[in-house]
Known about the structure:
globular
Amino acid sequence: MTPVQAVRKAKEHILELFNDESIAQVGLEELAFKDVEDVWEVTIGFQRLWKPVSPPLLNIGSHSSRRTYKTVCMRNNGEVISVRHRAISVPA
């Protein structure tokens, strides 16, 4: 599997997995190949366009649209073996 194929497969998997959550701006963040394990680790970022839960006046302009990151791990044959949350530290 080439890097382009791994990224395409990871994006397709994320889009299918989160299909009912209205995600947007799906994009590649990181890509790594673990040669010893023959595994691709592809980190995909996206936005969840969730509507506010509390009354609108308390959430003015606060549609929750922070970026979420997930690392899709797959074997070199394209079999997805896990999807993990990828925490990102934000500078203060």
